[in-house]
Specification:
The protein is globular. Helix 1 links the parallel strand 1 and strand 2. It is 36% helix and 16% strand. The protein is built from 17 helices and 16 strands. The strands form four sheets. A seven-stranded mixed beta sheet has the order 7-6-12-13-14-11-15, sandwiched between helices. A five-stranded parallel beta sheet has the order 9-2-1-10-16, sandwiched between helices. The protein has a two-stranded antiparallel ribbon with strand order 3-4. The protein is of the alpha/beta class.
């Protein structure tokens, strides 16, 4: 009987386990925490009855992937809920911009810049299923849709501040800047438009869905699928060495690269271990969850019904704050992401008290308290917000790393999105999942295609392991 051990029960570890089990492999998943799920856990962090996502909250790239098509998680209870308004960007004086599920409605709201928004996002939105077939796998491959990928790359390869200048007015520029900031990269860097272009197109193609009942529902569905296939999940087991695992045919590690080097010790070639230890992590986040009476009183009306609100001011303000955090300096006015999942999933609220999810982009390992900065940023665009706060729950970069050891220095995307690591993560190799020794694989978000609760890192790593087992 062929057997496998997966270390770590985040969405990638669980996707790897389900993919292996579906191929007839006997799978055990070992998780150090007492609750499985990694980046897709949820909990009542503030008041009883209010459900907060602990990390991953919106899942624009999870709806249509090779993994989601292989394993229908809705059969196991997962329900996707998609707000009509994917993300918004408030500006001073009640102004702002909104990215609706409808590309046409978004363009109409941008006035004179609408035609340019449609021009930038229209083709990518139409071709996104073909594009993702190439960008959700390792960069080194023969393109499956070369023309579609080339068209996408022409814009995605630009620095974000260059692509943003396609639009003339502040609302459209800011709307793009907010989604581009998800890359945690300076806007002057090559390919810093890529994530913004991908997530923006996904907003129009699929929306930015949430899981009904919290992101933990994703883990629950994956575990149910794994159990149905004969696999098991064991919690409270911290794996520090391969010697703890017995002699499985394959081992997949849903851990950060340095942790993989420590666990595998002398089992992998020295050059691989050195590369894993040299892997670069990116800036961190300071996360605050709020219980808010009546929700956030945004002056920008559309922001009240947006699933996600990007709080950063103008393009120039966001560009400055993102440059600062990558230099290791805490900006006075950080970029803040606000999640309002209850606008589409009222089961997370209690009466008119709503859970609000926020995090600020901060330097890696930032040891200060960003609470005042976060609340000042929101208060600027929603006067009276502070008066509505009933309770807050904060997690510093250190607390984020304690909550999930893969978030080194508070880095929730498991790696700096430098040009090199976007293309060659976690190290230059034809098979980036292989650890250079028979049967050992890395399947965390440090591998292609990177962060996001889409499970594709785990799915791709499992595919690599299955090819090894078939030899």
């Amino acid at each position: 009987m062929t057997d496998a051990v997966v270390v770590g029960s985040g969405p990638n570890g669980l996707a790897a386990a389900v993919t292996l089990a579906a191929a007839g492999v006997t799978v055990r998943v070992l998780e150090a925490a007492t609750v499985p799920g990694g980046g897709v856990r949820s909990a009542e962090l503030t008041l009883q009855g209010l459900l907060h996502d602990e990390c991953s909250a919106f899942h624009p790239l999870a709806r249509d992937t090779p993994f989601s098509r292989r394993v229908d998680l809705t059969r196991y209870g997962l329900q996707w809920l998609t707000p009509d308004l994917s993300y918004s960007h408030p500006l001073d004086g009640g102004r702002g911009a909104a990215a609706w599920r409808s590309l046409e409605r978004t363009a109409e709201g941008l006035g004179g810049d609408g035609r340019r928004w449609r021009s930038v996002f229209g083709g990518t939105t139409r071709r996104l299923p073909q594009i993702t077939e190439d960008i959700l796998i390792p960069a080194v491959h023969v393109p499956r849709h070369p023309l579609d990928l080339a068209r996408f790359g022409a814009a995605a390869g630009l620095p974000a501040h260059v692509l943003a200048k396609v639009w003339r007015d502040e609302p459209a520029r800011a709307l793009f800047a907010g989604v581009a900031a998800h890359a945690f990269r300076p806007f002057g860097a090559l390919a810093s438009s890529a994530i913004g272009l991908t997530l923006g197109a996904a907003a129009h193609r699929y929306g930015w869905p949430v899981a009904r009942g919290g992101s933990q529902a994703i883990a629950h569905a994956m575990i149910a699928a794994l159990t149905d296939l004969g696999g098991t999940v064991e919690t409270g087991i911290h794996v520090s060495s391969l010697d703890m695992l017995g002699d499985p045919d394959v081992v997949l590690l849903d851990v950060a690269p340095a942790a993989a080097a420590a666990i595998t010790e002398s089992r992998v070639p020295d050059r691989v271990a050195r590369a894993l230890r040299r892997y670069r992590h990116g800036p961190g986040v300071f996360k605050i969850d709020y219980a808010v009476d009546g929700g956030i009183p945004w002056q920008h009306e559309d922001s009240r019904s947006a699933g996600t609100v990007h709080v950063g001011g103008s393009l120039e303000e966001i560009a400055h704050s993102e440059a600062e955090i990558t230099r290791g300096r805490m900006p006075l006015h950080p970029f803040v992401l606000v999640g309002q999942q209850s606008v589409v999933d009222p089961s997370r609220s209690f009466g008119d008290v709503h859970p609000v999810y926020t995090y600020a982009h901060v330097p890696a390992g930032y040891s200060g308290d960003a609470t005042a900065a976060v609340e000042s940023r929101i208060e600027r665009f929603a006067p009276g917000f502070r008066d509505r706060i009933l309770m807050r729950h904060t997690r510093s970069t250190a607390a984020m790393a304690m909550h999930n050891v893969n978030y080194v220095g508070g880095d929730i995307v498991t790696g700096a999105n430098t040009a090199r690591q976007l293309l060659l993560r976690p190290r230059p190799a034809l098979d980036p999942y292989s650890l250079g020794a028979p049967g050992l694989y890395l399947c965390s978000a440090a591998t292609p295609p990177g962060a996001g609760a889409h499970g594709m890192c785990g799915y791709n790593a499992a595919d690599s392991a299955l090819k090894y087992l078939a030899r």
